Amino acid sequence: MKHLPKHLQPRWRYLAVVIETWPDADLDRRALQREVWYATQNLLGDPGSAEADMTVLRFSHADGVGHAIVRVRRGHTDTARAALACLDTVDGAPVGLRVAGTSGTVRACEEKYIRGPAKGPEQRQVVFENRDRRAVARGGRVDVQTDDGFVGATDLDI
């Protein structure tokens, strides 16, 4: 089968996506891809999702933080960002996605917006609700483990 001439080949844009979850969440690329497809289809419909053609190319997630690179056709970056904003869970785990930026190549996307592995979280013992509890600190945010799961807090809450 012959390939398309260069002027007929699709042009792509790459979105750098920052992922935040609870520290005990276990995400994989396949589950994120499935949720991206569902969110795009629900927001844009079948023709719109086929035109945007969103694909998760790179994925990394550990200890509640991670990043992904999502490929989208040029001219559909705004609708792709809107579809990513509709995602709130992946495999039943609550997730927060933020688009750090858009680039024309995968390499530029990695160099500009991802900049190597994310800084790992810090394990702490904190007092929360008058009890000593295990917590995971990232920046100024602290995820405190309770009997029912994790609770989001800040340094000032502890």
Pick out the low-confidence regions. Answer: none
Overall, the morphology is elongated
Distance between the termini: 63 Å
Which band does the percent of strand residues land in? 35-45%
* Count of helix runs: 3
Taking all Cα atoms into account, the compactness measure Rg is 18 Å
Strands of the widest sheet, in order across it, are 2-3-1-5-4
Secondary-structure element pattern, one letter each: EHEEHEEHEEEE
Can you give the mean pLDDT? 88
Which secondary-structure class do the elements indicate? Answer: alpha+beta
Beta-strand segment tally: 9
Query: What composes the largest sheet?
Result: 5 strands, antiparallel
Outline the structure in words.
The protein is of the alpha+beta class and 158 residues long. It has helices at 29-52, 77-85, 106-114, and strands at 12-21, 55-62, 65-73, 89-90, 93-103, 122-128, 131-138, 141-146, 149-154.
Q: Which terms summarize this structure?
A:
single chain, 158 residues, alpha+beta, five-stranded antiparallel β-sheet, four-stranded antiparallel β-sheet, 3 helices, 42% strand, elongated
